[in-house]
Amino acid sequence: MFINVIQKGRSLFQDFSQVSSPDAAKREALANPLFSWQATYVTYQRKKTVVLTHDESTLVVALVDINAKNRQTMETRFWDQLRLLYHDLGLSTADFQAYQRVSKLWQINQMVSRQQVGRLNLITPAVKAFLAERLMDDHKLSRKLSHIMRKTVTGDTVFWEDTPAMLATDQLVWHPAEIPALTDQSALQQTWVTLQKTAKVATAALESEDNRQFEKVAHQIQRVNRELIAAFIQFAQTKYAAKTVKSYQQALDFYLNEYLANRLVTVLDDDAAEVGDLYLHGGSLTECKRVQRTMKKFYQFLVQQQLMTKSAYQTIRSNLDESVELVLFELDEYDDFYD
Predict the structure, then answer these.
(1) pTM of this structure
(2) What CA–CA distance (Å, rounded) separates 133 from 126?
(3) DSSP annotation string for 145-210
């Protein structure tokens, strides 16, 4: 069983077995939401309550007053509370034992998706509200929280009453994780060489002031960019949630192929880091920041593929940050002028 813990709660789970490969564990957890739980804690009156939400159903297990002295008991307490929830659902002891046997022991991992973290963020205010009502019993608190409906990725609503069918013994099967496709390194290297050649041609096209040559080179840059973007997206799909990957795709398509390419700028050029210029051309500050974050991830990918050096990336990252900071500074100056 995967217990995917938010960063702030990792120290509470340090006594349990940790996954050896977070990326591989993430893929396996995403393929098996029935055996995956998200975990965090909330603090009320200086006491920590650990909250675990099931990735598939509405089930929530709350463990009140966890501290350094008793944190080793969390796994035992978790199974005790889950057994009681099974009983509340009308499921048998044999059903519970089957789930416990197939799930196996806790394996502590990092968060696996923003959507699952969203479920945690929905539950935690309710935890605080119930604690304020003096609902301090693990079982009563877990049962209350488990009745809070949830939304799936497809937009469907899942209720407490749907849980027994989800936990039926014939559903208790581990599914193989999707194996990420390997990036064709030689093809990517060739694409990078093509980009370097195109960048030199772009410089000449800018100096020539020939409109037809300008458009031709812009199309060449866009074609090479599409190959680089496709490789990055293939890589991103193995690490990030679908919503995040879609955001990356949209940001790169816009910034590299609509904005930069039509100015004959490639990712090799210093000007590619000037994302703050988007604001000067009508873009929103939110858009600038989204492109900034995406470009950092894109350049990190280029470093991992040995297409760019770490020192070059560090320079570009600094320039990306400075470009957005300059926009923020100018906005503050503007506000001060009119105050």
Answers:
(1) 0.59
(2) 11
(3) HHTS-EE-TTS-EE-GGGHHHHT-GGG--PPPPPPPPPP-HHHHHHHHHHHHHHHHHHHHHHHHT-
CA distance 300 to 30: 24
**Alpha-carbon span 176 to 188, nearest angstrom:** 28
- Asked if 82 contacts 57 with a C-beta cutoff of 8 angstroms, the reply is no
Residue type, 79: W
Q: How far from 318 is each of 81, 97, 313, CA to CA, in Å?
A: 49, 54, 8
CA 118 to chain centre: 11
Nearest one of 322, 218, 312 to 266, comparing CA atoms? 218
In the predicted model, is pLDDT for residue 26 greater than 80? yes
What is the distance of C-alpha 228 from the center of its chain? 21
**Over the range 313-335, which residues count as b (16 or more CB within 10 Å of their CB) and which as e?**
beebbebbeebbeebeeeeeeee
From residue 238, alpha-carbon distances to 31, 55, 128 in Å are 12, 18, 35
* Residue 3, strand partner residues: 37, 108
Residue 21 DSSP symbol: -
Query: What is the amino acid identity at position 317?
Result: R
Q: Tens of pLDDT along 235-272? A: 888 778 788 889 999 999 999 999 999 999 999 999 99
Predicted confidence (pLDDT) per residue in 178-225, tens digit: 655 555 678 888 999 999 999 888 888 877 778 888 889 999 999 999
Is pLDDT above 50 for 292? yes
Which neighbouring-strand residues pair with 62? 51
| Tokens 């581990």, residue located | 174
d(CA 174, CA 34): 9
Higher pLDDT, 70 or 179: 70
State how far the Cα of 169 lies from the Cα of 183, in Å rounded to an integer: 39
Return the SS3 of 7. Answer: helix
The answer for 90, left when phi > 0, alpha when psi is -120 to 50, beta otherwise, is: left
